[in-house]
Amino acid sequence: MADFEDATAPEGIEIRALETVEQVFAASEVLSQVWGGDRTGMPPNLLRALAHSGNYAVGLYDGERMIGASVAFFAAPASRSMHSHITGVLDGYRSQGLGRVLKQHQRAWAFARDVGHITWTFDPLVARNASFNLRVLGARVTEYLIDHYGAMDDGVNRGDESDRLMTSWALAAPAPIPAEETVVTTVAIPRDIERLRRDDPAEALEWRYRVRDAFGGLLDDGFVVVGFDERGYLFARGPAKP
User: Fold this and answer.
1) Which sign, positive or negative, has the C-alpha torsion 183, 188, 191, 194?
2) How far are the Cα atoms of 26, 29, 194, 196, 204 from residue 42, in angstroms, in the given order?
3) Measuring CA to CA, which residue among 29, 18, 30, 25 is closest to residue 56?
4) C-beta separation of 130 from 124 below 8 A
């Protein structure tokens, strides 16, 4: 967790609130590019409404060029939570720690508004996201959602089913490190599902069903996800039910 908290933006990179119509349209275009040309993920009118009503809506800039964006909205008041709907960084700026910078900014923004948890979903087959969410941030998997968004027609998800893991990030808690003796079993995932989708869509879909079945059986039997490493998802026995 210390590495995450110490993340600082590279020189010339900054995060700005989306305050103008021009910024909103630029952010929508950036997110469309990230998701392979899809313009339905965050249309400008919805983004404008969310930003104007006080939700989290920011652009990531390299100088005056927007290179990423992130949008989250508040949950029910009593839950002191918000849901991070979409975050993306343009190709060419990835693997530079900018995801950490955005999450650090989102965390500070949430704390300033008395928000204690941030939730979001991610594709359980994307290894780099699983590692970042569970190992670096210390988010907790709360639910496996089957085909959560239905058919998606973007360049990233087209041809696959939209299974997602719902995660909850306790902003004041350090990232937990699972004790090896508590790990009962693991669920492996592909090293690079995006490449597999391009090269062998049938095999990618087989991975989807394989991981879905494994998660379903383990969660139904009372196991919980406690981490992620090179073996895949780490499962331990959950607390005994009364």
Assistant:
1) negative
2) 11, 9, 22, 26, 26
3) 18
4) yes
Instruction: Give this prediction's pTM.
Output: 0.88
Structure confidence at residue 150 (pLDDT): 78
pLDDT for the residue numbered 78 = 80
Q: Rounded CA gap, 163 and 241, in Å?
A: 27
- DSSP result, 180-207: GGG--EEE---S-HHHHHHH-HHHHHHH
Taking the chain (242 residues) in consecutive chunks of 10 residues, what is each chunk's mean pLDDT?
Answer: 59 93 95 78 92 96 95 91 93 87 94 95 95 94 90 58 93 89 97 90 94 96 96 90 60
Determine the Cα–Cα distance for residues 86 and 149; give it in Å rounded to an integer.
Answer: 13
Strand order in the sheet with 56-62: 13-17, 56-62, 65-74, 81-89, 117-122, 164-170, 140-145
117 and 132 in contact (C-beta within 8 Å)? no
- CA pair distance 50, 111, nearest whole angstrom: 19
